[in-house]
Specification:
alpha/beta; Rossmann fold; 8-stranded mixed β-sheet; two-stranded antiparallel ribbon
Amino acid sequence: MDVVLPGGRDARGTLDEPDDEATEIVVACPPHPQQGGTRSDQRLTAVSDALGEQSIACLRFDYGAWNEGRGEQTDVKNAVRWARERYDRVGLFGFSFGATMALCTAPGIDDLWAVCALAPDSGREGADAVVALDDIDAPVKILYAERDSTADWEPVVERARELGMAVEGLSADHFFLGQSGKVAARVVAVFDSFR
């Protein structure tokens, strides 16, 4: 089902619903839009499919017009707001830039089910994932690629460990080529563990 997110930005999404009626949903944030990241990203679709098998809905969305990470965080908040109006429990997931957006947005959202960040980048001013970790009031798990030479993930992982958050390294590069199923299973396990 196609979705137009609320708010002043032209952000749209796809709602993937399981066969049975879902009361839980995960909002999936795509990778960097200026590098071809969309809601159709193979990691997002694999996670969505795996969530559906656990009777969890998934809202994959595209960001509105590029706005240096600020507008993209607004898009995440609007996607969560849309989901919250329809489901009892809302979680956040993101890959790469999307993981950074999920982490940076989470502090401003109450009662999140959990946040799962796959291959996050530490970000930059206005979207600093390392700083954001201190203020997230929800369970967090960071999944990182041990051979990732694309994202600046080390500061995020280090701070998450200092805060006692769950961290797991996967034997992969940043793109997890050929590992979408494995990654999806790890992400679903995060949300399942907080049911």
